Amino acid sequence: MASPWWSRPGLDAREGRLFVAGRDAEALAREHGTPLFVYDLVRIEEQARSLVDAFERVGAPFRLRLALKAQREPEVLAFVRSLGFIGLDVCSPREVDHALEHGWEPAEISFTGTNLSEHDLNAIVPTGVHVNLDLLSQLDRFGRRAPGSNVGIRVNPRTGASSRGLTHLYTGQERPSKFGILDEQLDDALEIARTHDLSLDTVHFHVGRTLLTDALPDLEVAAERAAAVTRRLMDAGHRVTEVNAGGGLGVPFDAEKPALDVDAFARVLTKQLGPLGVTIGLEPGDFLVKEMGVLLAEVVSADDRDRHRFVGVDAGFNVAPERRIYDEPIPLILCRAVDAPGERLVTVAGNINEGDDLWAEDLPLPEVGEGDVIALLRVGSYNRSMHIDHCMRPPAETVAFADRI
What we know:
The chain is α/β, with parallel strands linked by helices.
């Protein structure tokens, strides 16, 4: 029998049962209780090295950072730090503090935020982390506070790249976006830099979520525009050393989409940015940590109502809000029978007292009963970090494994 589309080293089916990092998933749920995030940390290293190796093959200087907003659990950060080649991307003063507290040096941390207050700047500037600013007003306020500094600018190339079409909020293709200095504002940015003796050393651009191979032609257009901005800064006398292509790299969410071709991805960015002689920066969240995570939940009810089957679990959207916030699809499987055919269509519902607390509708599953354990896949990014205290339901517990058995 063919392996399920989601299977990979560290996440596989053995005699019909789900194993995570070589451990029986249902047994982990019984041992630690549910809801429970299980992290296969080795997957982070596999994903990170695939990017590093791809840029080495094309001969491009490359810098990799993890988006801290996607994953900040101490066990995860300790593992990432131990690898020694991954920096951090942060977006708030508390994230700066969190990064420093977990062992990263200021030079390894890149800050890209938006709508910074005076309080934010008071907290960020003295730390010495590198800052990228995405509005003219922010650049001016930073310059008044830290004249003569090196700083980056986040630009908006007005084109996006996503395999799910999620680009308009970042690039303003349908209506104006709150992010990024626009091309027609670049002369004003240069004037602000001159006024405050700022050296613009980084160009940052971020163009969407869930970028897979089919979105690479769109990414190339965005990279070409970012390269043009970089040349304008260089022509104005600024020594740009890095072009940061942001995050948004995705992993497959169903059987229809293949994994990102990292070699093709590296070629696209290198083609446009390589001639500039800069380091190419990336700060993914999903790509590095999404696949490492599985959320285990126990079935607490199974009811037929109006000729429809409802399966209730002890995990609601409060413990994993990504689906609710981003409308992100989450594969669900029955841990004891991952390869069994679906016998009927069910709705899987959580335990939050809201009508839309639903994990799946019309999902084909084998016969499910109370006490079974269901696994929600691809939840290693954002979900635990975005816990919501709704209904005073607590966050899920976590267990992380740095080895596979």
